[in-house]
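Lecture notes, unit on binding sites. The following record was shown on slide 14. It pairs a sequence with glutamic acid.
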Amino acid sequence: MNLHNKTLHWPGAPPITRFAPSPTGGLHLGHAFSAILSHDTARALGGRFLLRLEDIDGGRCRPEFVTGILEDLRWLGLSWDGPVLRQSERMALYRKHLDHLTDEGLLYPCFCTRKDIQEEIARSPSAPQGPDGPLYPGTCRTLTQKDRATRLATSPPHCLRLDMAKAVKRAGPLTWTCLDDDGKETDIQARPETFGDVVLARKDCPTSYHLAVTIDDASQGITLVVRGEDLREATHVHRLLQALLHLPTPSYRHHRLLVNDSGKRLAKRDRATTLASLRESGETPQGIRRRIGPPLT
Ligand code: GLU
């Protein structure tokens, strides 16, 4: 294939790629870049391009954003294969996978509030940092079985965390494949431990980003995940979950992030770069492709 004069050599069967936005706002130029790259890669290599709505956050996702996303993608000229997968309709499946991890002794309930965690971290001056900030200090991991049962008896709000040390030990050494712009594959050693005890089920819903994305990439048969550089580190956790849940491992391509005039990453709140406002101001899909420039880093 040839994207902006560069050639991507894809070694295997035609890839199955996806675009997986969260309907918590309008799509901006950065999303267009990601969707176009994923779509064009699949189309150029005779593969399939799938769409998934990552709408587990009931408080922030809105039907009008869903409508807007579908409209934006169609306007860009992108077509997807098969039905749109909606994570909000798949909670029973996520729960099943959580039960498996619980049976394996890899999850524990965490009753801490955000404030509890902040206070605990403040008390330990050398609190380890992960890619997403300070690591969870492990307060609820060390509760005795009896204390845990006593607390659960009153059904307090709690999330489920992965016992990372145990999980990493159980899975053993893991690697994932990263595809660069020339289609060169590099095997990366997975380092999920840098995230600490990640949340796999939130207090308000029986899944989390990490769990749902891993299960759904497998359900949809994705073989090449194309997404932003900001999610590169999360791949280490996804690789671990694939191993623990006996799911296949796709290849990964993490693309550069678009920035605004002051060098800051585009965000949903930047009205000026939303596709809807660009469209209203007379921009064309071809113009959007020109604006995002070469998709390759
Ligand atoms: N839902 C995520 C987002 O909108 C993307 C997840 C992914 O591509 O893995 O940022």
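Take-home: Residues 1-5 have pLDDT under 50 and may be disordered.
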